Amino acid sequence: MPQDCCAPEGNVMILACSGGSNVGQLSNQAAVELTQEGFGKMFCLAGIGGHLNGFVQSAADIPQMVAIDGCSLGCAKALLEHTEIPNKSYLVLTDLGIEKNKDFKLKREEIEKVKKAIREVCNQEQAAIPMAEAGSSSCCG
Amino acid sequence: MEIKVLGPGCPKCEATEKNVKEAVAESGLDARVDKVTDVMEIAKYGVFGTPAVIVDGEVKSVGKIPGKNEIKTWIEQQH
User: Any idea where the domains of chain B sit in the sequence?
Assistant: First the structure.
């Protein structure tokens, strides 16, 4: 679903690896919650990986993006490289000290830790983007 | 050639439509320009935001107002 027109915020595209481990699902859950909280908008990494034109062009044109990988295998990062989309902000959850396992009972404190880290890495990127470019996906002119 | 401008009707969407129509007129090529305002129809293109421009089914830009020269490049490439 496209972004709502004239939304004053929430222009950060959030791409989660959503992989088959605790850290993959932590990336997914954090992306879902940050979308619900209005921080950004989760977008379909699989659509980009499938080279679907609308998804690839959207990722290419968005000024603010964060890619979240659960582990250092870096599937999201590799996918963006394959589609030649510049990776603007990037986070690997095992780098936050979260151990990778197959326990899908996600811990609230780890979800919050991931969300905080995503906000921080995005805020660092936002500070480096000119105002006009950062706001270009809002359509209020 | 068929060009679609996706957007619910905000100023950036209208500016994009204007640029597209002017680019088509200036290029002298035969192209139909349609505006798509229905959100569910827009969603079928998988775009993250609007305005978006589609040339013969291919998404060319998303979330920004493309310039006339850029639009002319797209339509000339398709011909």
Answer: 2-78
Structure ipTM: 0.90
pLDDT in tens, A17-29: 999 999 999 999 9
Q: Is A83 exposed, middle or buried (0-12, 13-18, 19+ CB in 10 A)?
A: middle
Quickly list H helices, B1-79: 11-27, 39-43, 68-78
Q: Could you tell me the maximum CA-CA distance found in chain A, to the nearest angstrom?
A: 46
How far apart, in whole angstroms, are the C-alpha atoms of residue A5 and residue A23? 33
> Quick one: pLDDT at residue B77?
84
Q: What pLDDT sits at residue B9?
A: 87
- The reply to whether A1 touches chain B by the CB within 8 Å rule is yes
Would you state the CATH architecture of domain B2-78? 3-Layer(aba) Sandwich (3.40)
Name the token pair of A51.
């080279």
Mean pLDDT, chain B, whole residue set: 94
* Contact indicator for B8, B54 with CB cutoff of 8 Å: no
**Minimal C-alpha gap between A29 and chain B (Å):** 20
Looking up tokens 């105002």 gives A131
Which segments in chain A show pLDDT lower than 50?
1, 3-4, 6-9, 134-141
Query: B51 vs A139: CB contact, 8 Å cut-off?
Result: yes
Decide: helix, strand or coil at residue B5.
strand
Q: Give the pLDDT confidence of A114-124 residue by residue, as tens digits.
A: 999 999 999 98
| Interface contact flag, B12 A44, Cβ < 8 Å | no
What is the token pair recorded at B57? 């089914």
